[in-house]
Amino acid sequence: MSQGPVVELLEYEEVAAGPVSAATSRAWYHYLLLGAALIFTAVSVSFVGTIFWSSWPEWIHHGFTLLTGKGWTSPAGPFGGLAMIVGTVETSVIALVIAVVIGLGTAISIVFFIPRRFRTVVATLVELLAAIPSVVYGLWGLLVLAPWMQVTVNPWLNSWPFAKEIFGNSGQEFGTSLLLASIVLGIMILPTFVAISREVIAVVPQDLMEASLSLGATRWQMISGVVLPTAKIGLFGATFLALARATGETVAVALVAGSVANVQFHLLYPGTSIAAWIATEFGEAQGNEVAALMALGVLLMLLNVCLALISRSLVNRQRRALARV
Amino acid sequence: MSDLIELEEPGDSGHAMRDEIRRTSDRFRGRRVAISRAMVALSCAALAIAAVPLILLMYQLFKQGVGQIDWKFFTTVPTTPTLIAPNATGGISNAIVGTIALTLYASIMAIPLGVLVGVYLAETQSKLATTLRVISQTMAGAPSILMGLFAFSLIVHDLDVGFSAIAGAFALAVLMMPVIIISTEIAVRNVPNTLREAGLALGAKSHKVSLKVVLPSALTGIVTGVILAVSRAIGETAPVLLVIAGGFTNTWKPLSPVSAMPLAIYENAKSEWPSQRAQVWGIALVLVLFVFILSLSARIWASRKQQVRN
Known about the structure:
The structure holds two protein chains of two kinds. Mean pLDDT of chain A is 83; it is low at 1-11 and 13-24. Chain A is mostly helical. Chain A is globular. Chain A has one domain (4-12, 22-324): Orthogonal Bundle (MetI-like fold). The two termini of chain A are 35 Å apart. In chain A, helix 5 (82-113) packs parallel to helix 9 and helix 6 (116-131) packs across helix 9. Chain A has 14 helices and no strands. Helices cover 74% and strands 0% of the residues of chain B. Chain B contains eleven helices and no strands. Chain B is flat, with a radius of gyration of 28 Å. Classes of the chains: A mainly alpha, B mainly alpha.
């Protein structure tokens, strides 16, 4: 999943707010453009409409078991989605913590500590990494990380006191687990987060930083006292975008999470997420189960739209705040 | 680079307040500098930590992938290994043909429409344009599995076309369109207004200006966006997973089931046969090279054109 549009988000809003040029004449050209716009409107309306409509039987027959029920009995049902919802929240929140902690440091060092010559190279590299297809991350997680987790990491985690209560027993058959899914997700959303937060940090006005340095601040005092507070809202925006990407990630999680529909708080046991469950179950699904998976799709869509709206309003607020400086 | 700008010696040393400031600042100075150095080191450590898994991934990809690739890898269709011939994995020609076919059909659907909608958004100001802008942004970030669900219910189920290349291409087209729309709009809006005004002043009709002046100037940005959209579509698994049903023959027919490289990776990674699991690295390497070449060429082309203009 390449991040072209996301990275360009900052630039995009700016341009979209700019002046509008010569209006098109009322010729065939105008109708051509209008026609294309109407077709796209129809596509996007039917995009939402079709998925909602296909999920309708599930809401009618099973009400809201999908939100609260445990266990997924195919093909007859009932279909409980609690395991997937919990799995999505667990994996994406842990992934987000990994990505934000490492990504913030990475973005700061790219902007401030790397020699200018290497900066473009590193930035291009980060964007290339964001372009690696997610199935390749999943493949690497399944064939390389999972055996390593099984042989090395899981026993080591379990050697800590109380670890069994937190993580559960080690020794899962293939090493696939919710923890592995979180780690792979964290690695995957890292380039996204770094790319956006790098841009957010880079547009902090030079005057502010120089003012802080001239008052005797050290480099870190400048970053923690001036740069991060100025860029704060935009960084939250980047965080929500990364979270949106983590919750929507499908095949990588389907490969490394283990595909078991249990409500699972022990991270070393296998689990699944909403998107991954749709991918793994859809092949054999029939009748009502298709509707139930569509209903999971509706949940995913709502979740994603909420996260996207939050992140966009945050990025917009950041821009307005910077415009005032 | 030092961590602290050195203050010059104050000229009037009798100034009590400045002395006071210097004393206080000196008392904490060692600690401030130490904290700063530590945090700089931590940030650079984060950069190193971020690089490690990605280097490991690329290393595995090349180490295990290169050995899998030979002439037969590209030219034969896959076979299922048996107990007698556990290494008979065959090639991936069906997946390569499928990926090219899917991308081609998706491009035919998405590129003209996307560019036109992008121009519409850039050149008109209406409620519809504002709404479409928000919609295309939201769709650009939507989970790709939703495009698969959409293509399944509309094309495979409602229109009763069945599992087919055209359904997969439709899903990919829905995925590509927002990306193309957004980058086209940016490119068209970045064309300087003076160019438009010059065209209008020479007496050209405004649609002539749009077609003959604005679009050629915006072409670089539009093409870059299109290439990025294509490179994203090539690597996507989730949308095609639900609708193309993974055929085992080389076929360009829009209505027959096809395979695709991401799908082949997804299926073979879970295989019980070690030979198939090994072959996956080869497919992944080819796919990653495809994507890298596309997005690098887009980037290089865009930056070169920009230099020409400057």
